[in-house]
Amino acid sequence: MSTNQQPPSYQKYQQMMQTTRSQQQAQAQQAILQSGADTHSQQMQQVYLQFQKVQAELQQARNQLEMQMSAQQRQLSQTEQLLQQTVQQLQTLQQKDASQGYLQ
After folding, report:
1. How far, CA to CA in Å, does 72 sit from each of 8, 31, 39, 86, 87?
2. CA gap 34, 37 in Å, rounded
3. pTM assigned to the model
4. What is the pLDDT of residue 1?
5. Which of 5, 21, 47, 48 is deepest in the core (most CB within 10 A)?
6. Whole-angstrom Cα distance, residue 60 to residue 18?
7. Cα 83–Cα 86–Cα 87 angle in degrees, nearest 5
8. Which residues, 6 or more positions from 60, have their beta carbon under 8 angstroms from its beta carbon?
9. Cβ atoms within 10 Å, residue 65
10. H/E segment holding residue 51
11. How far apart are CA 38 and CA 4, in angstroms?
């Protein structure tokens, strides 16, 4: 699975989160304008919204990384099991050859 391909449910979640953030930002901007807040307050609100956006992006990246690490761990475990099975087969063949008197 490449990093660009994500389960549809995760993509839908990302879209919903982006929509929610956009709606919250628009509502906050509207509230600022309606309250007649000064430029400084508006700038503070924009910085706060930017902080929230960066924080959400960080969490999203963290979640995606955890998903990828989990998938890689499963793949590593499968490879390890295959390696153990192969070693066991080699040992079985070696024992069989030894019992039949073949040179090793």
Report:
1. 19, 46, 49, 21, 22
2. 8
3. 0.49
4. 47
5. 21
6. 11
7. 85
8. 14, 17
9. 11
10. helix 39-99
11. 43
Residues of the chain whose pLDDT is less than 70?
1-8, 36-38, 102-104
- Helix, strand or coil, per DSSP, at residue 37: coil
As a dihedral over the C-alpha atoms of residue 79, residue 85, residue 89, residue 90, rounded to 10 degrees, the angle is 50
> Nearest-CA neighbor of 28 among 14, 17, 44, 8?
44
Domain boundaries, the chain: 12-99
Q: How many CA atoms are closer than 13 Å to the CA of 36, on its beta-carbon side?
A: 0
Q: CA-CA-CA-CA torsion for 77, 80, 81, 86, nearest 10 degrees? A: 160
Distance CA(37)–CA(85), nearest Å, equals: 70
Return the structure tokens found at 44. Answer: 């503070």
What is the C-alpha separation between 56 and 17, in angstroms, rounded? 9
